[in-house]
Amino acid sequence: MNHGRSTQSSRNARNTGWYKRVSAYSALSALIVVSAHAQVRYATGQNVAPVFEGWERNADGSFNFVFGYMNRNYEEEVDVPVGAANALEPGPQDQNQPSHFYVRRQQFVFKVRVPKDWGKKDLVWTLTSHGKTEKAYASLMPVWEIDAGTYQQNRGGPGELGELDDPPAMKLAGAADRSMALADPLTLSTTVVDDGRPTARRSGSDSNPRVEGPLKEAVVRLDPAMRLVVIWIVYRGDASAVTFTPRKVKVANGKADTTVRFSAPGTYVLRGYADDGIFWDAVDVKVTVSR
């Protein structure tokens, strides 16, 4: 009897070990399947989700709600004209949000100023694309407050040895609203004032200069030798019809020029960013192109 119980115990132990191994294998297989599914990358066909980044305080007591977005595609740039499918509320549908969406996660894209008596209301950005509607809800909840440190932490830190850094100041030469013929090139000239920081940081081997963080909206990384640049993007309109030469301009003697050509008539909003690798300033140019 004892022998029988021992044999049965051995069988039970073997069965239990086999069951545990099978269970572990099944769990691992399921984990692999789930992980693989979670890591699927979509080139096209996915929607754009609006994102509330946080709110800032202004010196006059008002506030800025800061928004970005997540284009779930890895290759497809999505266009959603301002209107019912791309609107903010309360207030006018158009509150300077983009209508051309570059791929993946784009941070700190635009700001909406609200009065100091805004209170507990939400400002809602609604985006509908590829048949899916998503909303971002902005509020003045304390947990959502952001400041200069938030930008620094998301764009590479405060610079060499924790040095202070002031944002560049950018100005556009000429009118911000222009009309032109399709065949004509457009020269965009800007002036940029900056404090010269952050200084270039070296790699651990001290052999290669630091590659600055990307300007998210432009989907362009600064070249190692470019500490201060102007980068142009299409903020609204058909980006495939716009060519910047160059798109990324190193600031020299406080100036940066680029030439733009259009291959289709229409109304475009072009945005230029003066970027020092941590902070930036921006200007918008509305261009109406006729045949």
Characterization of the model:
With 291 residues, the chain is of the alpha+beta class. It folds into three domains: 1-40; 48-144, no CATH class; 160-290, Immunoglobulin-like (Sandwich). It is built from two helices and 17 strands. The chain has helices spanning 2-38, 148-154; strands spanning 48-57, 63-71, 78-79, 86-89, 100-101, 104-114, 123-129, 132-138, 169-172, 177-181, 186-193, 229-236, 242-245, 248-250, 255-262, 266-275, 280-290. It has a five-stranded mixed β-sheet with strand order 10-17-16-12-14, with no helix packed on it. It has a four-stranded antiparallel β-sheet with strand order 9-11-15-13, with no helix packed on it. A three-stranded antiparallel β-sheet has the order 1-2-6, with no helix packed on it. Strand 16 and strand 17 form a beta hairpin. The longest helix is centred in the N-terminal third of the chain and has 37 residues, at 2-38. The radius of gyration is 26 Å and the shape is globular. The chain starts with a helix and ends with a strand. The model is unreliable at 1-25 and 202-216 (pLDDT under 50).
Helix-strand layout with pairing:
Layout: H1 2-38, E1 48-57, E2 63-71, E3 78-79, E4 86-89, E5 100-101, E6 104-114, E7 123-129, E8 132-138, H2 148-154, E9 169-172, E10 177-181, E11 186-193, E12 229-236, E13 242-245, E14 248-250, E15 255-262, E16 266-275, E17 280-290
